[in-house]
Amino acid sequence: MGKEQQMAHSIIEKLGGVSNIQTLMHCMTRIRVNLHDPSKADLAGLKDVDGVLGVVEDDTLQIIVGPGIVNRVTLAMSEETGMNIHSVEEETNPMDLEQMARMNKDAINKKNATPFKQFLRKIASIFIPLIPAIVASGLIAGITNVAIRMGADPESAFIQMLGLIGWGVFSYLAVFVGINTAKEFGGTPALGGAAGILIINPGLANITLFGDPLVAGRGGLIGVMLAAVFIAFLEKRIRKFVHPSIDIIVTPTLALLITGFATLFVLQPVGGFLSDLITKGLLNLIDIGGIFSGLILAGTFLPLVVTGLHQGLTPVHMELINTIGDDPLLPILAMGGAGQVGAAFAIYFKTKNQRLRKVIKGGLPVGMLGIGEPLIFGVTLPLGRPFLTACLGAAVGGAFQAFYEVATIAIGVSGIPLVFLVNPNEMVLYLVGLVIAYVFGFLFTWTFGFKESMAKDI
Protein backbone atom coordinates (compact mmCIF):
# COMPACT_ATOMS: atom_id res chain seq x y z
CA MET A 1 0.00 0.00 0.00
CA GLY A 2 1.45 3.37 -1.07
CA LYS A 3 1.88 6.37 1.22
CA GLU A 4 -1.22 8.19 -0.05
CA GLN A 5 -3.33 5.02 0.14
CA GLN A 6 -2.18 4.32 3.70
CA MET A 7 -2.90 7.91 4.70
CA ALA A 8 -6.35 7.74 3.09
CA HIS A 9 -7.12 4.46 4.86
CA SER A 10 -6.09 5.88 8.24
CA ILE A 11 -8.18 9.02 7.72
CA ILE A 12 -11.24 6.96 6.80
CA GLU A 13 -10.81 4.84 9.95
CA LYS A 14 -10.57 7.94 12.16
CA LEU A 15 -13.67 9.42 10.50
CA GLY A 16 -15.73 6.45 11.70
CA GLY A 17 -15.42 4.25 8.63
CA VAL A 18 -16.72 4.37 5.08
CA SER A 19 -20.37 4.29 6.14
CA ASN A 20 -19.99 7.49 8.18
CA ILE A 21 -18.75 9.62 5.28
CA GLN A 22 -21.56 11.56 3.61
CA THR A 23 -19.69 13.76 1.10
CA LEU A 24 -16.10 13.92 -0.08
CA MET A 25 -14.39 16.93 -1.67
CA HIS A 26 -11.18 18.93 -1.47
CA CYS A 27 -9.72 22.42 -2.03
CA MET A 28 -6.08 23.40 -2.54
CA THR A 29 -4.83 22.13 0.82
CA ARG A 30 -7.75 20.50 2.64
CA ILE A 31 -9.83 17.35 2.38
CA ARG A 32 -13.41 18.36 3.17
CA VAL A 33 -15.95 15.81 4.36
CA ASN A 34 -19.46 15.80 5.75
CA LEU A 35 -20.21 13.02 8.22
CA HIS A 36 -23.49 11.28 8.94
CA ASP A 37 -22.62 11.17 12.66
CA PRO A 38 -19.82 13.59 13.67
CA SER A 39 -19.65 12.00 17.14
CA LYS A 40 -18.18 8.82 15.61
CA ALA A 41 -15.09 10.66 14.36
CA ASP A 42 -11.88 10.41 16.39
CA LEU A 43 -10.58 13.95 15.91
CA ALA A 44 -7.64 13.53 18.26
CA GLY A 45 -6.57 10.39 16.41
CA LEU A 46 -7.15 12.11 13.08
CA LYS A 47 -4.65 14.83 14.01
CA ASP A 48 -2.06 12.14 14.79
CA VAL A 49 -2.29 10.51 11.37
CA ASP A 50 1.09 10.82 9.66
CA GLY A 51 0.82 13.62 7.08
CA VAL A 52 -2.20 15.36 8.62
CA LEU A 53 -1.19 18.92 9.51
CA GLY A 54 -4.37 19.97 11.27
CA VAL A 55 -8.13 19.62 11.52
CA VAL A 56 -10.74 22.38 11.35
CA GLU A 57 -14.31 21.75 12.54
CA ASP A 58 -16.68 23.75 10.37
CA ASP A 59 -19.81 23.15 8.31
CA THR A 60 -17.52 20.59 6.65
CA LEU A 61 -14.79 18.77 8.55
CA GLN A 62 -11.53 20.05 7.03
CA ILE A 63 -8.39 17.89 7.14
CA ILE A 64 -5.29 19.88 6.21
CA VAL A 65 -2.68 17.82 4.36
CA GLY A 66 -1.07 20.40 2.05
CA PRO A 67 -1.12 21.21 -1.67
CA GLY A 68 -0.50 18.49 -4.23
CA ILE A 69 -0.87 15.62 -1.78
CA VAL A 70 -4.48 16.64 -1.09
CA ASN A 71 -5.47 15.61 -4.62
CA ARG A 72 -3.81 12.20 -4.33
CA VAL A 73 -5.13 11.40 -0.85
CA THR A 74 -8.68 12.47 -1.76
CA LEU A 75 -8.50 10.29 -4.87
CA ALA A 76 -7.32 7.35 -2.74
CA MET A 77 -10.21 7.96 -0.33
CA SER A 78 -12.58 8.05 -3.29
CA GLU A 79 -11.25 4.71 -4.52
CA GLU A 80 -11.53 3.08 -1.08
CA THR A 81 -15.01 4.41 -0.30
CA GLY A 82 -16.40 4.05 -3.81
CA MET A 83 -17.58 7.66 -3.63
CA ASN A 84 -17.05 10.13 -6.43
CA ILE A 85 -15.59 13.44 -5.34
CA HIS A 86 -18.53 15.89 -5.23
CA SER A 87 -20.81 13.00 -6.20
CA VAL A 88 -23.52 13.84 -3.67
CA GLU A 89 -23.81 17.42 -4.93
CA GLU A 90 -24.01 16.23 -8.52
CA GLU A 91 -26.53 13.42 -8.05
CA THR A 92 -29.10 15.03 -5.78
CA ASN A 93 -31.97 17.29 -6.67
CA PRO A 94 -32.61 20.72 -5.10
CA MET A 95 -34.86 19.29 -2.39
CA ASP A 96 -32.15 16.78 -1.38
CA LEU A 97 -29.64 19.60 -1.17
CA GLU A 98 -31.96 21.56 1.06
CA GLN A 99 -32.35 18.54 3.32
CA MET A 100 -28.58 17.99 3.35
CA ALA A 101 -28.01 21.61 4.31
CA ARG A 102 -30.29 21.15 7.34
CA MET A 103 -28.42 17.99 8.35
CA ASN A 104 -25.04 19.69 8.04
CA LYS A 105 -26.24 22.70 9.98
CA ASP A 106 -27.07 20.51 12.98
CA ALA A 107 -23.49 19.25 13.03
CA ILE A 108 -21.87 22.69 13.25
CA ASN A 109 -20.25 23.60 16.52
CA LYS A 110 -22.64 26.10 18.07
CA LYS A 111 -19.92 28.38 19.37
CA ASN A 112 -18.79 28.99 15.79
CA ALA A 113 -22.26 29.36 14.28
CA THR A 114 -22.58 33.13 14.50
CA PRO A 115 -24.53 34.68 11.61
CA PHE A 116 -21.46 36.53 10.33
CA LYS A 117 -19.30 33.40 10.32
CA GLN A 118 -22.06 31.43 8.65
CA PHE A 119 -22.32 34.12 5.99
CA LEU A 120 -18.57 34.04 5.31
CA ARG A 121 -18.65 30.24 5.13
CA LYS A 122 -21.35 30.42 2.49
CA ILE A 123 -19.30 32.86 0.45
CA ALA A 124 -16.18 30.71 0.87
CA SER A 125 -18.07 27.61 -0.32
CA ILE A 126 -19.06 29.46 -3.48
CA PHE A 127 -15.49 30.43 -4.38
CA ILE A 128 -13.38 27.51 -3.14
CA PRO A 129 -14.16 25.32 -6.21
CA LEU A 130 -13.15 28.23 -8.47
CA ILE A 131 -9.74 28.84 -6.89
CA PRO A 132 -7.65 26.65 -9.25
CA ALA A 133 -9.07 28.38 -12.33
CA ILE A 134 -8.74 31.85 -10.77
CA VAL A 135 -5.14 31.23 -9.68
CA ALA A 136 -4.05 29.77 -13.02
CA SER A 137 -5.78 32.46 -15.06
CA GLY A 138 -4.52 35.27 -12.85
CA LEU A 139 -0.92 34.07 -13.08
CA ILE A 140 -1.07 33.76 -16.88
CA ALA A 141 -2.69 37.19 -17.17
CA GLY A 142 -0.03 38.69 -14.89
CA ILE A 143 2.86 37.15 -16.80
CA THR A 144 1.32 38.41 -20.05
CA ASN A 145 1.11 41.92 -18.66
CA VAL A 146 4.72 41.80 -17.51
CA ALA A 147 5.83 40.56 -20.92
CA ILE A 148 4.07 43.49 -22.62
CA ARG A 149 5.69 45.97 -20.23
CA MET A 150 9.09 44.43 -21.03
CA GLY A 151 8.65 45.09 -24.73
CA ALA A 152 6.60 42.23 -26.16
CA ASP A 153 4.30 43.24 -29.03
CA PRO A 154 0.73 43.32 -27.62
CA GLU A 155 -0.64 42.75 -31.12
CA SER A 156 1.37 39.57 -31.75
CA ALA A 157 -0.60 36.35 -32.07
CA PHE A 158 1.23 34.70 -29.15
CA ILE A 159 0.54 37.55 -26.71
CA GLN A 160 -3.06 37.74 -27.91
CA MET A 161 -3.47 34.01 -27.22
CA LEU A 162 -1.91 34.35 -23.77
CA GLY A 163 -4.31 37.20 -23.00
CA LEU A 164 -7.24 35.10 -24.18
CA ILE A 165 -6.21 32.21 -21.95
CA GLY A 166 -5.44 34.41 -18.94
CA TRP A 167 -8.44 36.73 -18.93
CA GLY A 168 -11.11 34.30 -20.17
CA VAL A 169 -12.15 33.03 -16.73
CA PHE A 170 -12.46 36.55 -15.35
CA SER A 171 -14.67 37.57 -18.28
CA TYR A 172 -17.18 34.83 -17.46
CA LEU A 173 -16.58 34.46 -13.73
CA ALA A 174 -20.12 35.72 -13.08
CA VAL A 175 -21.53 32.57 -14.69
CA PHE A 176 -19.43 30.25 -12.52
CA VAL A 177 -20.28 32.23 -9.39
CA GLY A 178 -23.97 32.11 -10.27
CA ILE A 179 -23.81 28.33 -10.71
CA ASN A 180 -22.05 27.76 -7.38
CA THR A 181 -24.28 30.21 -5.51
CA ALA A 182 -27.46 28.52 -6.68
CA LYS A 183 -25.98 25.14 -5.77
CA GLU A 184 -24.98 26.40 -2.31
CA PHE A 185 -28.51 27.70 -1.65
CA GLY A 186 -30.30 24.60 -2.89
CA GLY A 187 -31.26 25.72 -6.38
CA THR A 188 -30.57 24.41 -9.87
CA PRO A 189 -26.97 25.34 -10.85
CA ALA A 190 -27.84 26.15 -14.47
CA LEU A 191 -30.44 28.69 -13.34
CA GLY A 192 -27.81 30.30 -11.14
CA GLY A 193 -25.59 30.60 -14.20
CA ALA A 194 -28.46 32.22 -16.10
CA ALA A 195 -28.83 34.71 -13.23
CA GLY A 196 -25.13 35.54 -13.55
CA ILE A 197 -25.54 36.19 -17.28
CA LEU A 198 -28.26 38.73 -16.46
CA ILE A 199 -25.65 40.88 -14.71
CA ILE A 200 -22.91 40.79 -17.36
CA ASN A 201 -24.96 40.63 -20.58
CA PRO A 202 -23.72 43.35 -22.99
CA GLY A 203 -27.33 43.77 -24.16
CA LEU A 204 -28.03 45.72 -20.97
CA ALA A 205 -26.51 48.78 -22.64
CA ASN A 206 -29.45 48.82 -25.09
CA ILE A 207 -32.03 49.11 -22.29
CA THR A 208 -32.94 52.45 -20.74
CA LEU A 209 -34.69 52.63 -17.37
CA PHE A 210 -35.71 55.87 -15.68
CA GLY A 211 -33.84 57.84 -18.35
CA ASP A 212 -30.46 56.10 -17.93
CA PRO A 213 -29.05 53.13 -19.88
CA LEU A 214 -28.27 50.02 -17.87
CA VAL A 215 -24.62 49.11 -17.39
CA ALA A 216 -23.37 45.58 -18.01
CA GLY A 217 -21.46 44.31 -15.00
CA ARG A 218 -22.84 46.84 -12.51
CA GLY A 219 -23.10 45.19 -9.13
CA GLY A 220 -20.33 42.77 -10.05
CA LEU A 221 -20.15 39.45 -8.28
CA ILE A 222 -22.22 40.81 -5.41
CA GLY A 223 -25.10 41.44 -7.80
CA VAL A 224 -24.58 37.99 -9.30
CA MET A 225 -24.82 36.33 -5.89
CA LEU A 226 -27.95 38.30 -5.04
CA ALA A 227 -29.59 37.24 -8.30
CA ALA A 228 -28.53 33.60 -7.89
CA VAL A 229 -29.77 33.42 -4.29
CA PHE A 230 -33.05 34.98 -5.38
CA ILE A 231 -33.58 32.51 -8.24
CA ALA A 232 -32.78 29.55 -5.96
CA PHE A 233 -35.23 30.83 -3.36
CA LEU A 234 -37.88 31.47 -6.01
CA GLU A 235 -37.43 28.10 -7.68
CA LYS A 236 -38.03 26.20 -4.45
CA ARG A 237 -41.12 28.26 -3.61
CA ILE A 238 -42.67 27.92 -7.09
CA ARG A 239 -42.06 24.17 -7.13
CA LYS A 240 -44.37 23.73 -4.14
CA PHE A 241 -47.34 24.92 -6.19
CA VAL A 242 -46.58 23.30 -9.55
CA HIS A 243 -47.75 19.82 -10.52
CA PRO A 244 -44.80 17.41 -11.03
CA SER A 245 -45.90 16.64 -14.61
CA ILE A 246 -45.19 20.22 -15.74
CA ASP A 247 -42.55 21.14 -13.16
CA ILE A 248 -39.60 20.97 -15.56
CA ILE A 249 -41.26 23.53 -17.85
CA VAL A 250 -43.16 25.87 -15.55
CA THR A 251 -40.84 26.16 -12.54
CA PRO A 252 -37.58 27.22 -14.28
CA THR A 253 -39.44 29.46 -16.73
CA LEU A 254 -41.26 31.41 -14.04
CA ALA A 255 -38.16 31.52 -11.82
CA LEU A 256 -35.98 32.95 -14.60
CA LEU A 257 -38.62 35.38 -15.85
CA ILE A 258 -39.36 36.82 -12.41
CA THR A 259 -35.66 36.90 -11.49
CA GLY A 260 -34.87 38.70 -14.75
CA PHE A 261 -37.17 41.62 -14.02
CA ALA A 262 -36.26 41.62 -10.32
CA THR A 263 -32.58 41.82 -11.28
CA LEU A 264 -33.02 44.70 -13.71
CA PHE A 265 -35.20 46.79 -11.40
CA VAL A 266 -33.92 45.86 -7.92
CA LEU A 267 -31.08 43.35 -7.50
CA GLN A 268 -28.54 44.91 -9.86
CA PRO A 269 -28.98 48.43 -8.42
CA VAL A 270 -28.77 47.02 -4.89
CA GLY A 271 -25.67 45.03 -5.87
CA GLY A 272 -24.13 48.17 -7.34
CA PHE A 273 -24.85 50.10 -4.15
CA LEU A 274 -23.30 47.38 -1.96
CA SER A 275 -20.32 47.09 -4.28
CA ASP A 276 -19.69 50.83 -4.11
CA LEU A 277 -20.12 50.80 -0.36
CA ILE A 278 -17.59 48.01 0.15
CA THR A 279 -14.96 49.22 -2.31
CA LYS A 280 -15.15 52.90 -1.33
CA GLY A 281 -15.13 51.95 2.34
CA LEU A 282 -11.99 49.84 1.95
CA LEU A 283 -10.25 52.44 -0.18
CA ASN A 284 -11.05 55.16 2.36
CA LEU A 285 -9.82 52.89 5.16
CA ILE A 286 -6.51 52.32 3.39
CA ASP A 287 -6.14 55.96 2.31
CA ILE A 288 -7.03 57.49 5.67
CA GLY A 289 -5.44 54.86 7.89
CA GLY A 290 -2.33 54.49 5.73
CA ILE A 291 0.32 52.31 7.31
CA PHE A 292 -1.87 51.76 10.39
CA SER A 293 -4.59 50.20 8.24
CA GLY A 294 -2.04 48.01 6.48
CA LEU A 295 -0.64 46.95 9.84
CA ILE A 296 -4.06 45.93 11.22
CA LEU A 297 -5.32 44.23 8.06
CA ALA A 298 -2.16 42.16 7.54
CA GLY A 299 -1.70 41.41 11.23
CA THR A 300 -5.20 39.98 11.63
CA PHE A 301 -5.39 38.02 8.39
CA LEU A 302 -3.85 34.73 9.56
CA PRO A 303 -6.64 34.00 12.09
CA LEU A 304 -9.09 34.27 9.19
CA VAL A 305 -7.01 31.74 7.22
CA VAL A 306 -7.18 29.34 10.18
CA THR A 307 -10.96 29.14 9.87
CA GLY A 308 -10.88 28.93 6.07
CA LEU A 309 -13.06 32.03 5.86
CA HIS A 310 -10.46 34.04 3.92
CA GLN A 311 -11.92 32.69 0.68
CA GLY A 312 -15.00 34.78 1.44
CA LEU A 313 -12.97 37.87 0.53
CA THR A 314 -12.68 36.83 -3.13
CA PRO A 315 -15.67 38.92 -4.29
CA VAL A 316 -14.21 41.94 -2.46
CA HIS A 317 -10.94 41.60 -4.37
CA MET A 318 -12.83 41.23 -7.64
CA GLU A 319 -14.99 44.27 -6.95
CA LEU A 320 -11.92 46.40 -6.30
CA ILE A 321 -10.43 45.31 -9.64
CA ASN A 322 -13.71 45.88 -11.47
CA THR A 323 -14.25 49.28 -9.87
CA ILE A 324 -10.81 50.94 -9.81
CA GLY A 325 -8.79 48.67 -12.07
CA ASP A 326 -6.54 47.12 -9.40
CA ASP A 327 -6.59 45.65 -5.90
CA PRO A 328 -4.59 47.35 -3.10
CA LEU A 329 -5.97 44.95 -0.48
CA LEU A 330 -4.41 41.71 -1.73
CA PRO A 331 -0.72 42.73 -1.35
CA ILE A 332 -1.44 43.80 2.23
CA LEU A 333 -3.15 40.51 3.15
CA ALA A 334 -0.44 38.53 1.34
CA MET A 335 1.97 39.61 4.06
CA GLY A 336 0.21 37.20 6.42
CA GLY A 337 1.84 34.26 4.69
CA ALA A 338 5.19 36.07 4.51
CA GLY A 339 5.27 36.64 8.27
CA GLN A 340 4.54 32.94 8.66
CA VAL A 341 7.50 32.02 6.46
CA GLY A 342 9.83 34.23 8.49
CA ALA A 343 8.63 32.66 11.73
CA ALA A 344 9.12 29.16 10.32
CA PHE A 345 12.70 29.96 9.28
CA ALA A 346 13.46 31.16 12.82
CA ILE A 347 12.08 27.98 14.37
CA TYR A 348 13.94 25.79 11.86
CA PHE A 349 17.31 27.33 12.73
CA LYS A 350 16.61 27.43 16.46
CA THR A 351 15.01 24.06 17.23
CA LYS A 352 16.72 20.69 17.66
CA ASN A 353 13.46 18.79 17.23
CA GLN A 354 14.00 16.79 14.04
CA ARG A 355 10.33 16.06 13.46
CA LEU A 356 9.52 19.77 13.66
CA ARG A 357 12.40 20.61 11.32
CA LYS A 358 11.10 18.02 8.84
CA VAL A 359 7.61 19.56 8.87
CA ILE A 360 9.07 23.06 8.37
CA LYS A 361 11.32 21.84 5.56
CA GLY A 362 8.28 20.45 3.76
CA GLY A 363 6.08 23.49 4.40
CA LEU A 364 8.51 26.31 3.59
CA PRO A 365 8.62 25.91 -0.22
CA VAL A 366 4.83 25.98 -0.60
CA GLY A 367 4.64 28.72 2.05
CA MET A 368 6.88 30.93 -0.05
CA LEU A 369 4.66 30.13 -3.02
CA GLY A 370 1.59 31.43 -1.19
CA ILE A 371 0.09 28.30 0.43
CA GLY A 372 0.32 28.92 4.15
CA GLU A 373 -1.84 26.17 5.71
CA PRO A 374 0.96 23.57 6.09
CA LEU A 375 3.05 25.99 8.16
CA ILE A 376 0.04 27.30 10.09
CA PHE A 377 -1.38 23.93 11.13
CA GLY A 378 1.86 22.00 11.20
CA VAL A 379 4.12 24.53 12.91
CA THR A 380 3.12 27.94 14.25
CA LEU A 381 -0.44 27.33 15.48
CA PRO A 382 0.39 24.17 17.48
CA LEU A 383 3.35 25.99 19.05
CA GLY A 384 1.18 28.98 20.00
CA ARG A 385 3.42 31.99 20.44
CA PRO A 386 5.08 31.74 16.97
CA PHE A 387 1.64 32.19 15.43
CA LEU A 388 1.41 35.58 17.16
CA THR A 389 4.93 36.61 16.13
CA ALA A 390 4.12 35.58 12.55
CA CYS A 391 1.15 37.97 12.72
CA LEU A 392 3.42 40.73 13.99
CA GLY A 393 5.86 40.19 11.14
CA ALA A 394 2.95 40.25 8.70
CA ALA A 395 1.75 43.53 10.20
CA VAL A 396 5.09 45.24 9.45
CA GLY A 397 5.01 44.03 5.85
CA GLY A 398 1.39 45.10 5.48
CA ALA A 399 2.22 48.60 6.73
CA PHE A 400 4.92 48.84 4.05
CA GLN A 401 2.56 47.70 1.25
CA ALA A 402 -0.09 50.19 2.39
CA PHE A 403 2.37 53.08 2.59
CA TYR A 404 3.53 52.55 -1.01
CA GLU A 405 0.00 51.71 -2.23
CA VAL A 406 1.08 48.50 -3.97
CA ALA A 407 -1.80 46.89 -5.91
CA THR A 408 -2.45 43.86 -8.14
CA ILE A 409 -4.20 43.71 -11.52
CA ALA A 410 -5.74 40.27 -10.84
CA ILE A 411 -6.15 37.83 -7.97
CA GLY A 412 -4.18 34.68 -7.27
CA VAL A 413 -2.05 33.01 -4.63
CA SER A 414 0.14 35.25 -2.50
CA GLY A 415 3.83 34.85 -1.77
CA ILE A 416 6.42 35.10 -4.54
CA PRO A 417 4.02 34.25 -7.44
CA LEU A 418 1.93 37.33 -6.65
CA VAL A 419 4.73 39.52 -7.98
CA PHE A 420 3.54 38.71 -11.51
CA LEU A 421 0.10 40.13 -10.69
CA VAL A 422 1.36 43.37 -9.17
CA ASN A 423 1.35 46.54 -11.26
CA PRO A 424 4.68 46.33 -13.13
CA ASN A 425 6.05 49.59 -11.73
CA GLU A 426 5.38 48.31 -8.19
CA MET A 427 6.88 44.82 -8.49
CA VAL A 428 10.12 45.73 -6.70
CA LEU A 429 8.17 47.41 -3.89
CA TYR A 430 6.06 44.30 -3.41
CA LEU A 431 9.17 42.12 -3.18
CA VAL A 432 10.76 44.52 -0.69
CA GLY A 433 7.59 44.34 1.45
CA LEU A 434 7.67 40.55 1.21
CA VAL A 435 11.26 40.44 2.44
CA ILE A 436 10.40 42.87 5.26
CA ALA A 437 7.63 40.55 6.45
CA TYR A 438 10.03 37.59 6.23
CA VAL A 439 12.67 39.44 8.24
CA PHE A 440 10.38 40.75 10.97
CA GLY A 441 8.55 37.43 11.27
CA PHE A 442 11.99 35.86 11.75
CA LEU A 443 13.24 38.48 14.23
CA PHE A 444 10.10 38.51 16.40
CA THR A 445 10.04 34.71 16.55
CA TRP A 446 13.77 34.35 17.17
CA THR A 447 13.78 37.02 19.88
CA PHE A 448 10.74 36.10 21.97
CA GLY A 449 8.45 33.81 19.95
CA PHE A 450 10.00 30.38 20.38
CA LYS A 451 11.64 28.30 23.08
CA GLU A 452 12.81 24.72 22.65
CA SER A 453 10.47 23.56 25.40
CA MET A 454 7.52 24.41 23.11
CA ALA A 455 8.58 21.69 20.67
CA LYS A 456 8.44 18.76 23.07
CA ASP A 457 4.84 17.88 22.17
CA ILE A 458 5.24 18.35 18.41
Automatic annotation (TrEMBL):
The chain crosses the membrane at residues 126-152, 158-179, 215-234, 246-268, 288-309, 329-349, 403-422, 428-450. Pfam families: PTS_EIIB, PTS_EIIC. The keyword Membrane applies. Residues 5-87 form the PTS EIIB type-1 domain. GO terms for molecular function: kinase activity; protein-N(PI)-phosphohistidine-sugar phosphotransferase activity; protein-phosphocysteine-N-acetylmuramate phosphotransferase system transporter activity. InterPro entries: Glu_permease_IIB (IPR036878), PTrfase_EIIB_Cys (IPR018113), PTS_EIIC (IPR003352), PTS_EIIC_1 (IPR013013), PTS_IIB_1 (IPR001996), PTS_Sugar-Specific_Components (IPR050558). CDD domains: PTS_IIB_glc. The active site is at C27. GO terms for biological process: phosphoenolpyruvate-dependent sugar phosphotransferase system. It is found in: Cell membrane. The keyword Transport applies. Keywords: Cell membrane, Kinase, Membrane, Phosphotransferase system, Sugar transport, Transferase, Transmembrane, Transmembrane helix, Transport. One of its GO terms (cellular component) is plasma membrane. It is a multi-pass membrane protein. Its main location: membrane. Residues 121-458 form the PTS EIIC type-1 domain. This is PTS sugar transporter subunit IIC. It comes from Fictibacillus arsenicus. The lineage of its organism: Bacteria, Bacillati, Bacillota, Bacilli, Bacillales.
